[in-house]
């Protein structure tokens, strides 16, 4: 897959079959559109192209609103699109100035003059341009003038999938990581760097990797204990993970820490990826560290039952 980073890098793409959108999470509903793009490109002997905006438009238009959390970073989204089989990923920097571009200018300057779009495929009710003025009806009425074909994925096709990025965020906020997996077609994951902790887990016989997240804008699942798979140095390990305040220990700040099974490497300052498999329980406050250790033994047994 070729990444074109910015409007100025966009060049004519032969027989370009194009779609555009934020595609946060690249869930199974998105994948339905993307597979159609790839298949059309093969049919016409052309190239599939996804035009996406970064940062997310809401981060730019509503900078003081911190409610929106994303399912994927740009790098994660790019990797998934590559796996789907997309030929070109076009990254357009979304700015306040760009948000003022009319749909007419966007179509003519970007889709026609720069990309050379042969066919544009969009999801139902997809709009673009200043004040979201561009619609499927507008595109259809003017397709002969723009010299490209327009196709809209029917509402029925998308509704049959029953998935949206909002639904996935809600599932994660409720701790339903297995449901999020079903909606996305893969486990929900977060990446981070291992930082020094207070080593209380080591004292209990359960050393943990304390994880500082790479992206503060990503959704963090509901507090609790999870069975997870952790990617470290190109290998995947079974693990259990806690998200929360650690009320038995200090309860002062929210942390994410993973105990990786059968693992004894020094990975301080290294990157890892957590893949969520199943939520096991709520975070609890115990009367003693011994009681906490007993529960950790149970959590390990339950995690292994899920993972293996």
TrEMBL record:
The keyword Kinase applies. Keywords: ATP-binding, FAD, Flavoprotein, FMN, Kinase, Multifunctional enzyme, Nucleotide-binding, Nucleotidyltransferase, Transferase. Pathway: Cofactor biosynthesis; FAD biosynthesis; FAD from FMN: step 1/1; Cofactor biosynthesis; FMN biosynthesis; FMN from riboflavin (ATP route): step 1/1. It comes from the Bacteria. PANTHER family: RIBOFLAVIN KINASE, RIBOFLAVIN KINASE/FMN ADENYLYLTRANSFERASE. Belongs to the ribF family. It catalyses: FMN + ATP + H(+) = FAD + diphosphate; riboflavin + ATP = FMN + ADP + H(+). It comes from Reichenbachiella ulvae. Catalyzes the phosphorylation of riboflavin to FMN followed by the adenylation of FMN to FAD. Its EC number is 2.7.1.26, 2.7.7.2. It is an enzyme of class 2 (transferase). One of its GO terms (molecular function) is FMN adenylyltransferase activity. The keyword Nucleotidyltransferase applies. Residues 183-308 form the Riboflavin kinase domain. This is Riboflavin biosynthesis protein.
């Amino acid at each position: 897959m070729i990444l074109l980073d910015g409007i100025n890098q966009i060049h004519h793409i032969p027989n370009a079959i194009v779609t555009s959108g934020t595609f946060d999470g690249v869930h199974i509903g998105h994948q339905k559109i993307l597979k159609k793009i790839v298949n059309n490109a093969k049919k016409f002997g052309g190239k599939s192209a996804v035009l996406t905006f970064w940062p997310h438009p809401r981060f730019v238009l509503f900078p003081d609103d911190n409610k929106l959390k994303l399912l994927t970073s740009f790098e994660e989204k790019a990797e998934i699109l590559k796996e789907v089989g997309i030929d070109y990923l076009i990254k357009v920097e979304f700015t306040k100035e760009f948000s003022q571009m009319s749909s007419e200018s966007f179509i003519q300057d970007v889709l026609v003059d720069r990309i050379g779009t042969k066919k544009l495929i969009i999801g139902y009710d997809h709009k673009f341009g200043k004040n979201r003025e561009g619609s499927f009806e507008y595109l259809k009425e003017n397709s002969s003038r723009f010299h490209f074909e327009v196709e809209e994925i029917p509402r029925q096709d998308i509704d049959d999938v029953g998935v949206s990025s909002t639904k996935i965020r809600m599932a994660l906020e409720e701790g339903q990581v297995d449901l999020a997996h079903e909606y996305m077609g893969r486990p929900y994951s977060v990446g981070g760097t291992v930082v020094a902790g207070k080593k209380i887990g080591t004292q209990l016989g359960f050393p943990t990797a304390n994880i500082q997240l790479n992206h503060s804008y990503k959704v963090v699942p509901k507090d609790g204990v999870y069975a997870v798979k952790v990617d470290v140095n190109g290998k995947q390990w079974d693990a259990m993970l806690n998200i929360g305040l650690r009320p038995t220990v200090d309860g002062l700040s929210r942390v994410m820490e993973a105990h990786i099974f059968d693992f004894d490497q020094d990975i301080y300052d290294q990157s890892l990826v957590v893949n969520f498999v199943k939520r096991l329980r709520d975070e609890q406050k115990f009367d003693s560290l011994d009681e906490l250790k007993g529960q950790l033994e149970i959590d390990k047994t339950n995690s292994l039952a899920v993972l293996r």
